């Protein structure tokens, strides 16, 4: 790996929300030494203070990086979400600032799928209420209302990475799988696509939600959808708290129309383990409540730590945006004798010719170049044969091109 122009020991890494130690190890192994680690998310004012000097920031699902916070992070190079969801980051604002955002799209899917499957079994057996009764000294040995999952219908809303794994595991237990997705999906195993969400709700014994947080999924399960579910059916939500109208769910659980629920994510979640958890579902025996731990296994966290830290290191060291969620994907092999410049710009006509004119005017040979664009921005990595001082001068000249968002000399 080449020596970077901006010394690695000056790059500040801010890691929040107790990301795995494997992330810290990955940064250290890559030569980064300024690593600030926090066990939990920070209050807004402190977040703005800490992020002001940070070059690389790592968060999980709790930390909100809105446009104002991102704008206050003047040195920010890239953001890593050490999780799947990226709804907590204003991705468009980050893009407009020339900041790529990375995540770990697969590392915790199995953990969520296993938890969901276990919950489906526990709910169908009415174990949450029996467990609560026993803890209170009660004893109600009865088969009433208890069912095997074998032969029952599992309705999966959002048939993506997690939804498909849940479906395959459920089939292994003999469940019949029905799914609903907005995209047309390859069906795995013996799963069947439902005609529509309502169709799934009307047929499933257990409904499990695996959609991302978007304007379309906000409150997609409200009073009307709960009413469509079969009497005595169960609901599992390990996606995002905004997807379910939690008051409507509490009401449906009280009437018994919904027999049980397992909820891992909430519209409002505590910032840290010291803060109180408040929810209309607290105290209901037929509800499994978990503190957003669907993806919290040691295996998943360890893998996520390595995966996301490696993506941040790769971007910082060689400019690769491969698998960024809000950025054109660019990766260029190293040219052994070249210097590398990065240019992030608004996607306007003639930008590449203006960039290349500059190099031809200065009589600098381009050894390699890779441009990718999204509708609003372009990202070009340029390897050139030039001296260190000339590379610095070229960077300044590139920065003057109208529409430039960011420019860096990497090495
Ligand atoms: N509880 C936890 O700890 C965890 C929660 N999650 C949540 O689970 C979500 C899903 O994760 P993945 O399966 O990896 O995502 P994914 O992107 O692979 O799958 C999501 C699926 O939902 C579908 N979808 C989107 N909008 C929809 C709509 N309005 N109606 C129906 N389907 C819709 C998509 O087409 C896609 O197939 C994440 O976005 C995250 O919010 C993820 C990991 C851990
Ligand atoms: O991966 C996700 O999207 C999750 O919801 C897990 O979030 P966490 O890292 O546990 O805060």
From TrEMBL:
Classification via Gene3D superfamilies: 3.30.70.260, NAD(P)-binding Rossmann-like Domain
Domain ACT: 340-411
Top-level lineage group: Bacteria
A Pfam match: 2-Hacid_dh
Gene Ontology molecular-function annotations: (S)-2-hydroxyglutarate dehydrogenase activity; NAD binding; phosphoglycerate dehydrogenase activity
Pathway(s) annotated for this protein in UniProt: Amino-acid biosynthesis; L-serine biosynthesis; L-serine from 3-phospho-D-glycerate: step 1/3
Entry keyword Manganese: no
GO biological process, one term: L-serine biosynthetic process
EC number: 1.1.1.399, 1.1.1.95
Record field: catalytic activity: (R)-2-hydroxyglutarate + NAD(+) = 2-oxoglutarate + NADH + H(+); (2R)-3-phosphoglycerate + NAD(+) = 3-phosphooxypyruvate + NADH + H(+)
Alphabetized UniProt keyword annotations: NAD, Oxidoreductase
Functional summary from the UniProt entry: Catalyzes the reversible oxidation of 3-phospho-D-glycerate to 3-phosphonooxypyruvate, the first step of the phosphorylated L-serine biosynthesis pathway. Also catalyzes the reversible oxidation of 2-hydroxyglutarate to 2-oxoglutarate.
Family to which this protein belongs: Belongs to the D-isomer specific 2-hydroxyacid dehydrogenase family.
Name recorded for this polypeptide: D-3-phosphoglycerate dehydrogenase
Organism, scientific name: Dokdonella koreensis DS-123
